[in-house]
UniProtKB/TrEMBL annotation:
PANTHER family: ARRESTIN, ARRESTIN-C. GO terms for biological process: G protein-coupled receptor internalization; nervous system development; signal transduction; visual perception. GO terms for molecular function: G protein-coupled receptor binding. It holds the Pfam family Arrestin_N. PROSITE patterns: ARRESTINS (PS00295). GO terms for cellular component: photoreceptor outer segment. This is Arrestin-C. May play a role in an as yet undefined retina-specific signal transduction. Could bind to photoactivated-phosphorylated red/green opsins.
Length: 369
């Protein structure tokens, strides 16, 4: 019988031994990777170590290269058939591995993969710059087909005469490729939560409405309930008849120009009344989830591999000073609290809003080693 400790060790060893591989159509090159998720630690990114196994009998005078590319996909592959480019390379790096000219320092991952590939394996390593965006995809609409738009990373090995000759057409059967992800996890230290407040005066009322909102911490995990502490001091002669809390996702797409798209991922009304010259204090809890936004086209999601489940895109964390260097997709969130004040509008005949915004960070916790 296996003890629980032995079962845990067995699962761990099985996970450690997992290898991802892809072979070209002609069997000439096989790409090996030990993992497909590479963590951006803000100051540095995990190194991409891999191996390419070669079967050189049909190579002739051709060479073998391996490349890592970060690209923004902004259209369907169908466009490529019409001669339109549907990918914009943000960053790309090539190495020649046959005849051998790239000789990385061997890591433990290399040694594991070389055992799998055998004597014909050629190791390679890529250093991902920390000014590249994380893997993000934009949620397709119900009728959209093909790969989703967004930022992806691809490791590709191919047989060619030259490294990157635009006039050389590389055949699909001479290529093997694997999509990888650049991801971020929440930092180990979570700070104090943000706090904001606003005062708004109304016609024919001597005193304003004061609204204050705060969070317990500055970062929440995907799926974690978010309690918002709300304080209202209604010094006016108006009635706050209800309020609405929404969470907005802001997606900055930075390529040829900078565009920002805002989409609500949660909108919740609370039938809470605050009479004139009264106060209110309460904690209201919200939980933004992708499950409630499955039909929203263009929503930013964490990059996915094949058809596996994903979630709302994580907040992008950048090293200070990198904001203007990063291309691709940057994601942030904010909470909006709207008080609907009866008779606070034009000449006191219509309602008006008191609006307050609080920044929000959504991320995944770092897995245990």
């Amino acid at each position: 019988m296996w003890t629980s400790e032995k079962r845990t060790l067995r699962r761990t060893l099985h996970k450690m031994a997992k290898v991802f591989k892809k072979t070209s159509g002609n069997g000439g090159v096989t790409l090996y990777l030990g993992k497909r998720d590479y963590v951006d630690h803000v100051d540095k990114v995990d190194q991409v170590d891999g191996v390419v196994k070669l079967d050189t009998k049909d190579f002739g005078n051709r060479k073998v290269f391996v490349q890592l590319a970060c690209a923004f996909r902004y259209g369907s592959e169908d466009l490529d058939v019409m001669g339109l480019c549907f990918r914009k390379d943000i960053w790309i790096q090539h190495f020649q591995i046959y005849p051998e000219s790239h000789k990385p320092t061997l890591s433990a991952m290399h040694n594991t993969l070389l055992k799998k590939a055998g004597d014909d394996g050629k190791p390679f390593s890529f250093e991902i710059p920390n000014n590249l965006p994380c893997s993000v995809c934009l949620q397709p609409g119900p009728d959209d087909r093909g790969k989703a738009c967004g930022v992806d990373f691809e490791v590709k090995t191919y047989i060619a005469n030259k490294k990157s000759d635009p006039d050389e057409k590389i055949k699909k059967k001479d290529t093997a490729r694997l999509i990888i992800r650049k991801i971020q996890f929440a930092p180990s230290q979570i700070g104090a939560g943000p706090k904001a407040d606003i005062c708004k005066s109304f016609m024919m009322s001597d005193k304003p409405v004061h609204l204050e909102a705060s969070l317990e911490k500055d970062l929440y995990f995907h799926g974690e309930p978010i309690p918002i502490k709300i304080k209202i001091n209604n010094g006016s002669n108006k009635t706050v008849k209800k309020f609405k809390i929404s969470v907005e996702q802001l997606t900055d797409i930075i390529l040829y120009s900078a565009d920002t798209y805002t989409k609500a991922v949660l909108c919740q009304e609370f039938e809470e009344t605050v009479e004139a010259n009264a106060t209110y204090e309460n904690t209201l809890t919200i939980t933004p989830l992708l499950a409630e936004n499955k039909e929203k086209r263009g929503l930013s999601l964490d990059g996915r591999l094949k058809d596996e489940d994903t979630n709302l895109a994580s907040t992008t964390m950048l090293r200070q000073g990198l904001e203007k260097e990063v291309l691709g997709i940057l994601v942030s969130y904010k909470i909006k609290i709207n008080l609907m004040v009866d008779g606070g509008g034009l000449l006191g005949l219509t309602s008006s809003n008191v609006t307050l915004e609080v920044p929000l960070m959504l991320m995944h916790p770092k897995p245990q080693e």
